[in-house]
Amino acid sequence: MATDTADGMSSHMRGLTVTTITAVAGIAAAFVSNAVAASATDVTGVLVVAAAVLAQFPVLRVIGIGPDDLSTKDVLYVAFMTFALWFVSWGILLTAGV
């Protein structure tokens, strides 16, 4: 593509990759929180989502999105999207009694 750089991916593909990883990490964190937390008030569930946010940055680096490519806005986006999907997914799991 004309917008690709010689050493990286296009901005569209980069955004799609980051969004997909944050969505999957948030949903996975909800399932892990549901498995390890005794109730919704258990702090372990929040620790799981914090670990999920922190675990994404090495994954992004392996994919080719290094720390130099991530601005403060991007880091906040990763944290918010992971938290939002974790919150909604875990809420559904808690309500359904899974």
Which features would summarize this protein structure in a list?
single chain, 98 residues, mainly alpha, 0% strand, transmembrane helix, transmembrane
Q: Can you give a write-up of this model?
A:
This protein is mostly helical and 98 residues long. The protein has one domain (12-96). It has helices at residues 11-36, 44-63, 72-96. It is elongated. 19% of the residues are buried. Pfam families: EMC6_arch. The chain crosses the membrane at residues 16-37, 43-63, 75-96. InterPro entries: EMC6-arch. Keywords: Membrane, Transmembrane, Transmembrane helix.
The assigned structural class equals mainly alpha
Mean pLDDT over all positions? 87
How would you characterize the largest beta sheet? none
Low-confidence stretches: none
Number of domains: 1
Between the first and last Cα atoms, what is the distance in angstroms? Answer: 45 Å
How many helical elements? 3
Sketch the topology as an H/E string, one letter per element.
Answer: HHH
Instruction: Estimate percent helicity.
Output: over 70%
Number of strands: 0
Query: Nearest-angstrom radius of gyration?
Result: 15 Å
Q: What proportion of the residues form beta strands (DSSP E)?
A: under 5%
Coarse shape: elongated
